[in-house]
Specification:
It is built from 5 helices and 8 strands. With 184 residues, the protein is an alpha/beta fold. Strand 7 and strand 8 form a beta hairpin. The mean pLDDT is 84.
Length: 184
């Protein structure tokens, strides 16, 4: 062990996607907090990059060119997913499911060749009574088909609207929530 003590550990590159496009999104705030934890030394060996899905056009196979060539913003997104070692989804729950923008991003990256295949993934969410939990279950179902491998535990459901205050302008607020996020 002493011989490897000076060796640096490999860094795990995580692509983080927020299913909410809202400027004040709690889900994007969760990602900001995860990035802060990884850069602040609270989590070693992880580099988290937020990937903005708002520039992606609605999936339309008429936009594809022969030879699996996609619009430039889609190609850039797919490349970032392909380069990532794992994926972090911050998924709001809309109508017991994932949001349309997140599903759209998932669909673009699953077009041939599927760039999600074989990657480990985790889900975090904030919401009402169940903290967005039903979106987790639907996202896991989608993951089966596109060959994403979601971690089973710990699960992260933040009940965002119950006291005490869960968010401030920098992201997630209470230390207990930050500790739970760190476990993911």
């Amino acid at each position: 062990m002493a011989a490897v003590a000076g060796a640096s550990s490999p860094v795990i590159n995580v692509a983080a996607l927020s299913g909410s496009l809202r400027k004040g999104s709690y889900h994007t705030g969760l990602i900001r907090s995860a990035i802060e934890l990884s850069r602040g030394g609270a989590i070693q060996g992880i580099n988290i990059e937020y990937i903005d899905i708002s520039p992606l056009p609605f999936l339309n196979t008429d936009l594809e060119e022969q030879g699996n060539k996609y619009p430039p913003e889609v190609e850039a997104f797919r490349h970032k997913i392909l380069q990532a070692d794992s994926i972090l989804f911050a998924s709001p729950e809309y109508n017991y499911s994932v949001t349309a923008p997140l599903k759209n991003a998932i669909d673009w990256a699953s077009r041939p060749p599927n760039v999600w295949a074989g990657k480990p993934a985790a889900i975090i969410s904030a919401g009402g009574d169940f903290g967005g939990g039903r979106s987790h279950y639907h996202l896991r179902q989608i993951g089966v088909y596109i060959d994403l491998h979601f971690i089973n535990k710990p699960e992260f459901f933040l009940k965002a609207f119950q006291p005490p205050l869960k968010f401030n302008s920098d992201g997630i607020h209470p230390a207990t929530s930050r500790q739970k996020l760190k476990q993911i």
